[in-house]
Amino acid sequence: MPVLFSDREEAGQRLAESYQGQREDVVVLGIPRGGLPVGYPLAQSTGGIFDVIVVRKLPVPFSPEAGFGAIAPDGSLVINEEMMRSLRLPDRQIKEIAAEVLGEVRRREAAYRGDRPFPELKGKNVVLTDDGLATGYTMIAAIEMARKLGAGHVAAAVPVSPADTADRIRPMVDYFHCLYVSSHYPFAVAGFYHDFHDMSDAEVLRYLERR
Q1: Which of 25, 33, 41, 95 has the smallest C-beta neighbourhood within 10 Å, fewest atoms?
Q2: What average pLDDT score do residues 122-128 get?
Q3: CATH code at 109?
Q4: pLDDT at 67 > cutoff 90
């Protein structure tokens, strides 16, 4: 697995340089935490509004790095049905996990946004960014939320993705932009970065303050 980027902001700069999507009435929304440094250069290059969209994966109880779905701030769930069948998690446990993750989503919403309203998406060209895709379900939750809020055009822009996830996301958006799609497994987003440290809320806020 090649190391392609020194850090997330370099990945974002390279993404911005090669971006060929819509460049008018753009709203760039980063999925925290890693999507913020990736999205910031893209917002600068398009002159778009830059903000955060807080969606979180639902972790598999015995393997927290893996996710069986994702949840958006409005409580909307996106579930990987195939994984659910293999995990055989009881409905009660799924509800408990979803409630716990939703609590963290709303905590982050309050920390990152405060009293600032979510940006108006109706008729806008929305670009959703992250530092890479794994199963893609957090991106799917973000796409569905953007559609519900009336986005006129939805793009997903990420530095790296496994091939099967890229195939899953591509038909869901109007424009899919990925610098490196890998067909090699196992796949780990962190492996493509020299610096892939766990970002803090303070770092997210610094990017939002630079808006």
Answers
A1: 95
A2: 98
A3: 3.40.50.2020
A4: no
Where residue 2 falls (left for φ over 0; alpha for ψ -120 to 50; beta otherwise) is beta
% pLDDT > 90, the chain: 76
CA 34 – CA 6 distance, rounded (Å): 14
- Domain span at residue 99? 8-209
CB 112, CB 54: distance < 8 Å: yes
Domain contains 192: yes
* Tokens encoding 28: 């760039």
Task: Please report whether residue 1 resides in a domain.
Answer: no
Overall average pLDDT of the 26-50 stretch: 97
**The dihedral formed by the CA atoms of 118, 112, 75 and 131, expressed in degrees to the nearest 10:** 100
> How many domains is the chain partitioned into structurally?
1
pLDDT value of residue 104: 94
